[in-house]
Amino acid sequence: MNVAASVEATNTPALIGSCPSCGSAALTGIYAQDDIPVSSCLLFDNAQAALQVDRGDIRLSHCEDCGFIFNAAIRQGASEYSERYEETQGFSPTFSSFHTALAKELIERHELRGREVLEIGCGKGEFLLLLSQLGENRCTGIDPSAHPHRIAGIEGAERVKLVPEFFAPELAQKQFDAIICKMTLEHIVPTLDFLRVVRAGIVEGSRPLVFFQIPNALRILSDAAYEDIYYEHCSYFTAGSLVRLFENAGFAPLRVLHQYDDQYLTIEATVGNAPPLDIADDRAEVARLAGSLAKRVAAKQADWAARIDAAVKTGRKVALWGSGSKAVSFLAALPDPAKIEAVFDINPNRQGHSMPGTGHHIVGPKDLTSICPDLVIVMNAVYRDEIARELIDAGIEAEIVAL
Ligand SMILES: [Zn+2]
Fold it and tell me: How far is the CA of 72 from the centre of ligand 1 (A)?
């Protein structure tokens, strides 16, 4: 064993032995994946740096008591969330219209006009800008990957304060009318502790709207969507386990929805008394799907590998569309990722960088005519139509398939 290997061995953590959402020890291992990049949204300047990305293991555990699923092998702090973290989907017209509709809907239904809004894990601040522009709300966003200068000068930015730090209660000591947390809870290991900190920060006597959005784990389980299982996402909720977590932390859940083609799960909650939320107990279904997940994922991965092999054997160029976490996961599961000719992304901030784990160069729509792919594998079916239009505009006649 060389020095590096022995260091690695001593860093291997013991598996988390109790459920971070309810404390139960009734856990079953359901899915394992070794040596995957721990940071799948980071921008790497070149292939060599991208190949040297730190790696970690996934050992998904299913809690029989609350239905929560989490990576029991997670090393806290292993994933880098910094200014090099580029996750935004804001360059997609499909995503932007969903985001705008969501902001409008929350403003209307909860009368969020001229109010104080906090967003924990605000990313680049796009949602807060919408809440400021559409409802003149005063917004505070906290996120270590925030870039305050990127929104400077944009209409509404004068009411948006971005704090490029990890969330800590002392950063948000104000009475807020709404507390928003989108696509963040799935990155957090101590889920119950985190929710309790958010709860404790709510000023006594106030009843803010609490709105959380996360990936819908029921869809991941049903579709064996292995591209959505990656290192940064250590926590996987269905409606049932999410409601139970909020109740455990002292919130009163008001509404749970599936959105964005079933990919997102959202919860609205508040504090104090509210009628109990009547949702179906999904624990038996989650247990059944969790039990067969590994087998179904293996079959799906073998199918994709065979499909790509067959295309390459007949001289066709295969490209991926989407260079984010889903693509990192998809490439990590391929026996020979070098068979993928190119990885496209419409986010100009990602173009010119390299994919963590495989080093693929990330290119943009302007490179379509020089690369000329024959088969384009779309990482998220939601974007299929807008990608098809990009190909038509570039005069490329490729087969398009979505995960
Ligand atoms: Zn549990």
Answer: 12
